[in-house]
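Consortium newsletter contribution from the modelling node. Members have asked for a concrete example of what our holo predictions look like. Here is one, prepared for the magnesium ion complex that several groups have been discussing at recent meetings.
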Amino acid sequence: MEDIPKAYIKKIIHVDMDAFYASVEQRDNPDLHGKPLAVGGSRERGVVAAASYEARKFGVRSAMPSAIAYRRCPDIIFVKPDFAKYRAISKQIREIFFRYTDLVEPLSLDEAYLDVSENKAGISSASKIARQIRAEIKSETQLNASAGISINKFLAKVASDINKPNGQKTIMPEEVIPFLEQLPINKFFGVGAKTADKMKRLGIHTGRDLKEWDLMLLKQEFGKAGQHYYNIVRGLQQSAVKPFRERKSLGAERTFDHDLKGMKEVLPAFENIFDIWHQRITEQELAGRTISLKMKNQNFETISRSTTLLHPSKDRGDLWSAAKGLLLAEYQGQAIRLMGLSLSNFKKDPQNQATQLTLKF
Ligand SMILES: [Mg+2]
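And here is the predicted structure:
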């Protein structure tokens, strides 16, 4: 059996709340118990931020345009998101993590990596810590969390999905290699649908298939990512759990199944990306000055254009007119395969900024 070098073995937990926003709404409103529910969007427009398990049975997913969600599940109830509430609960959950370790890296309001190799409780079993954390989350917030436990972030993330909802899964060091070998390629975190399709065309269906490819060939096919795939399938990932990660930009982008042609196809797709992007901005309570549009055409040429506002903003109207302005200025009718929007140049607290400006006058 292959041995993974000691330097690559840490005790990492990935905690992921189950259907977070939807579960919070069900917790706080008994009328919603057991009902198919979408947080965000409406029958006509917008995008689903989170779906309850009852709605997922109908194929409703987060980031799905809500009109499609409604078509799939006509009984679905749309609930307006309350991000201030979700942020407060997220903070409450983070405080529970800090009882065990300060090495906490949040991925979003409802997910985080924890490095418990050394921990404040002096517990040697990471699985036991995960069980305790989930029990504390449950008793203090009445919400369910799932967890994955393994030697690195990649494996912990993949593991947290296995016994979801309200479960946990540990992949022990000696189980890592066999686990990765049988893992279907589309379950590899970081391998998107497009890449998974490409791998399948190349005959790569599982970790075992991926491992047969040497580094040079992987780099040839997948560029820089080739090195990453080569490493993770061997259980080699050294990326540390980084607390206090400060964001430099926040974006949303999509690669399309087929190239989009003409404004008639481009605009609805653009609106959908805008909705997802604006939702993320609202979740994170960020305000930024620079809006960037990225488009890739069928020849893989990338166009990137930015515009900078006078003041940082998170206002839907401001961002929409800036983003749409970029699209109208840059789109020349070519076929588009990828489109993305991002916000940068952040000012943490726009209210303070406004106060300062007022004082100057
Ligand atoms: Mg979650």
